[in-house]
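During the reporting period the student researcher (J.K.) took over the structure-prediction task from the postdoctoral fellow and processed the backlog of single-chain submissions. One of the processed entries is reproduced below for the supervisory committee.
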Amino acid sequence: MVQPQASHHAAAWEVVRRHLAITPVVTAPQLGQNVSLKIETFQPTGSFKVRGGLAAVAATLNADPGREVVGASAGNHGLGLAYAGAKLKAKVTVIVPRLASAAKVSALQQFDVRLVLHGEGYSEAEAHALDLVEREGGRYVSPYNDPDVIAGQGTMARELLEQVPNLGTVIVPVGGGGLVSGISLGLRGSGVRVIGVESEASPSMSAAVAAGTIVPITVEPTLADGLAGNLETGAITVGIALDNNVEILTVSEADIRSAMAFSAHKMGLVLEGAGAVGVAAVRAGLISSRDDGSETVVILSGRNIAPTLLDEVLHS
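J.K. obtained the following structure tokens:
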């Protein structure tokens, strides 16, 4: 798998700008001085992953018009592909685990895609998607291990540079690393510090960065279901994170739960667990501010949470 090239980034920016509005950056005095939020929950699918979905589907159609796109997803990546398929008139199949978030499955059912529920977890869904591509053709699009997807997520970096002139630090949720890879590539050479945050229940990227290579981990249950799982063999995101000196932090389930409740009660923002890990890291005091007065931007990556879980979090 090749890393994204300039052509990937240019094509991603063109399709994202054509179909998505620039999401806002707002100050967050509730989290401290010089802290702002990039609100990707305002995306039409409720998550940043629509960026990568548009980039990958557009690239597929440009290379082979009519070719089907197949993805495995805990929900948000599938929604991104589904939205892209509707906008670009592409055939899309999404495989999700049977235990995927009910909110995300319900949202997927609103799109004209082939939706398949398979397996107990993401790994089984992914294996089924790869088998489907082997048998039927089409292009498998990984949620993170794909140059078009990474370039699509990286369009956020270009927006941030334009929106925040004194940008100093970006705090990014990390699962497979597609977003943190895209942002770190987009900010390369700018002097901006990129910090990734993952759930300590699924520390796949921090384990890989520490070891310098992908290592298997034990995945525990987590509110940040969108970040959970082992990395694909040969995932290019690890090398990108290492090359760009991305620091990876982990936060506890208690901190994630507290951050979700805080974001709703104090900032009026609904976040799923994966979208709240950056807020959790700031509130836990894990990230020190820079001495130059520059701005720290926390990426709020997604809002797609089942109402019952949201109610539980808000009243726990």
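The committee noted the following: The mean pLDDT is 95.
J.K. will present the remaining backlog at the next meeting.
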